TrEMBL record, chain A:
Coiled coil: none
Organism placement in taxonomy: Bacteria, Pseudomonadati, Pseudomonadota, Alphaproteobacteria, Hyphomicrobiales
Pfam families the record matches: YCII (PF03795)
Xref: PANTHER family: BLL7163 PROTEIN (PTHR35174:SF4), BLL7171 PROTEIN-RELATED (PTHR35174)
Annotated organism of origin: Bradyrhizobium quebecense
Protein name: YciI family protein
InterPro entries: Dimeric_a/b-barrel, YCII
TrEMBL record, chain B:
InterPro entries: Dimeric_a/b-barrel, YCII
Family statement drawn from the similarity comment of this UniProt entry: Belongs to the YciI family.
Domain YCII-related: 14-115
SUPFAM superfamilies: Dimeric alpha+beta barrel
Official protein name in the record: YciI family protein
Top-level taxon in the UniProt lineage: Bacteria
One Pfam family of this chain: YCII
Lineage: Bacteria, Pseudomonadati, Pseudomonadota, Alphaproteobacteria, Hyphomicrobiales
Length: 138, 141
């Protein structure tokens, strides 16, 4: 099963406070462990929402608004994509993440083709697989 | 520059664990994905199961605490994402505007951090690791 681990933003990440060398080293070690265990597929950090934008859709029209966005929602500052046998295994890995107080992560299962049932016709399924294979080569 | 386009369908926070999808909408989204790929900007994309089947790990005190979904306080929940590589933020926005999204949906565009964004000291500390940030499709696959 594939999971996306969403790292929630907090006051520091939204203020653009960069991680300390110690935290970066601890995170590097944690990532190495997950890569060696064959669990980690990707992971990235995101710039604060002050540098981002949102596009909203209504009646065929789209409107763009620029960040920063209010912290009423669930803002994101980074993520991992991991592959484990179960949600419990994903949780076990993430309990070991070197976060201090005030951090929160969310673990969500990634859709696989078989989850879509009949909505995903054989043609669409084939297109999706081809797209992923080609996009991954970039 | 790499950008993450986060799909936030409003109402997804209270979606049931099992989703019913509209085949026509799936097809429209596939055509959009194909356009991103044909333009050479698509790195990867994924869809996420609803929050009802997810979990949160909180580090409020430094010790991990696990809570199972769904969460009543959740307001904006991610339904999926695209990772793209384009020349500018404006180009990323232009792509997001072409998405065949519904009226309740919103795409958030966020720039991905590169090692060059960090201080020299931090870059040095990270260079001792083979996979400091992860990255797509390089050493990891």
């Amino acid at each position: 099963m594939k999971f996306m681990v969403i790292v929630k933003a907090n006051k520091d990440t939204e203020a653009g406070v960069m991680p300390s060398t110690e935290l970066l080293a601890a995170m590097g070690k944690f990532n190495e462990e997950m890569v060696k265990a064959g669990v980690m597929q990707a992971g990235e950090g995101l710039h604060p929402t002050s540098k981002g934008a949102r596009v909203k859709y209504a009646g065929g029209q789209s409107t763009v608004s620029h960040g920063p966005f209010s912290p009423t929602g669930d803002l994101v500052c980074g993520f991992w994509l991991i592959e484990t046998r179960s949600l419990d295994e994903a949780i076990d890995w993430m309990k070991r993440a070197p976060f201090g107080g005030g951090s929160e992560i969310e673990i969500r299962q990634v859709f696989a083709a078989e989850d879509f049932g009949e909505a995903l016709t054989p043609e669409l399924r084939e297109q999706g697989e081809r797209l992923r294979a080609q996009a991954g080569k970039k | 520059m790499r950008f993450m386009m986060l799909m936030i369908p409003l109402g997804y926070e209270s979606a049931p664990a099992k989703l019913e999808l509209d085949p026509e909408r799936v097809a429209a989204m596939m055509r959009y994905n194909q356009a991103l790929k044909d333009a050479g900007v698509l790195i990867t994309l994924e869809g996420l199961h609803p929050l009802a089947s997810g979990a949160r790990v909180k580090f409020d005190t430094g010790e991990p605490m696990v809570v199972d979904g769904p969460f009543t306080e959740a307001k904006e929940v991610i339904g999926g994402f695209w990772m793209i590589e384009v020349a500018s933020r404006a180009e990323a926005i232009a792509w997001a505007k072409q998405c065949p999204a519904s009226a309740n949906e919103m795409i958030e565009i966020r720039q991905v951090q590169e090692m060059a964004d960090f201080s020299e000291e931090v870059q040095q500390a990270a260079s001792t690791f083979e996979h400091p940030q992860g990255g797509w499709g390089k050493a990891l696959r």
